[in-house]
Amino acid sequence: MHDRGLIESPETNAVRDAAWRPEADEICENHVLSEWKRREKISERLMILKSLVPANNKADKVSILDVTIEYVQALERRVAKLESCRKLEARTKIERTSDDYGNNKTNNGKKPSLSKRKAYDLVDEADQEIGYVASKDGSTDNVTISMNNKELLIEFKCPWREGILLEIMDALSILNLDCHSVQSSTTEGILSLTIKSKYKGSSVAKTGPIEQALQRIAGKC
Q1: What is the pTM assigned to this prediction?
Q2: How many structural domains comprise the chain?
C-alpha cells in the first residue's frame, strides 16, 4: 500500500512538466502572434489614413490622428459653408422668379407713360452695364472692397446664373477669406452681393487678387 502524502520523485515531475509545457508554450505563442497581427493591421490602417489626408508628412501614430482630425473638421466646415451657399442660392432663385412674375404682371397691365418707360429703360441699361466697363487704372464699378485690419466688406454685382454663388465662395476660400455673412438679391437678372469676411493669412490682405478673381467669375456670365 502506497502513501499518497509521499513526495514524488524528480523523474515523475519531469514527465509531468513535459506533458504540459508544450501546450502552455503554444498558447503563449498564439497570443503573441495575434497581438502582432492586430498591430500590423492598425499600422496598415494608419498608413492608408495618412495617404488620404493631404500634406501629412508625420510618421508617428498620434500625429497622423491629430492631422486627420483637423482635416475632417475642415471638411465639416466646408460642407456647412457649401450648404449655406446652396440655401442662399435657392432663396436668390426664388426672389428672382418673384421679380420676373411681378414684372410680367406689370407688363400685362396698364402701360406706363412714355417718360416713365424711358426712365425705366435707362435704369435697366445702367444695371446691366454695371461692372463690364473698367476704367484705365484697372478699378471697376461692380466690385467695392472695404478693409479694416483683416476684416473685409465686399460688395459685388454681376449677371446671375446657376451655380455662381458657389463659384464666388470657392474663389474667396482659395484666397484665405472666411466668409461669415452673405447677403444677396437679384433684380432684372443682376446679382448683388454683400459679403463680410475675415482674412486668415499671416500677411496683409490684398484687394487686387480678390477683384481679379471676382471679375473672372463675372466674365463667365
Answers
A1: 0.44
A2: 2
Identify whether residues 175 and 92 lie together within a single domain: yes
How many CB atoms neighbour CB 75 within 10 A?
Answer: 10
Looking at the structure, tell me whether residues 44 and 146 fall in a common domain. Answer: no
* Inside any domain, residue 141: yes
Per the domain annotation, does 65 fall within a domain?
no
- Whether 34 and 143 map to the same domain: the answer is no
- Segments forming the whole domain that contains residue 41: 10-52
In a domain, 165, yes or no: yes
**Tens-of-pLDDT digits for all 221 residues of the chain?**
445 444 555 555 554 554 445 565 666 767 777 777 787 888 788 777 777 776 666 667 777 788 778 878 887 888 887 777 777 777 766 666 555 555 555 555 554 444 444 444 444 444 444 333 333 333 467 899 998 888 999 999 999 888 888 889 888 988 888 888 888 888 888 889 999 998 987 777 788 899 999 999 988 76
Q: Are residues 195 and 127 in the same domain?
A: yes
Based on the fold, state whether residues 98 and 142 are members of the same structural domain: yes
